Amino acid sequence: MLALGLALAMPAGAADVRAVKSRVPPVYPEIAKRMKIDGSVTVEAKVDADGKVSEVKTISGNRILSTAAEEAMRHWKFEPCSGQSTVDVSINFNLAP
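and the corresponding structure tokens:
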């Protein structure tokens, strides 16, 4: 069995605080499961005024896991606000024993 953890990480001054309306969990990559790769991936997402994610890029983490984290973030929805903002999100990939 595997477990995925999501944590909204907001380094001081590096990102805006936006409430999440809906989260889509990442799909654990099959190759990562077979290779027993786990860890945390931090992604940066640009969110438009309507709350839609417009851009996503990996800041840190394993490249095999980062593609899944980026793809999931593209489907997240945030609360609307007056303009575009940037949020940093850490997604933890853990293979449970």
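(Above: one complete record from the training split.) Strands lie at 2-8, 20-22, 39-47, 53-60, 77-78, 85-95.
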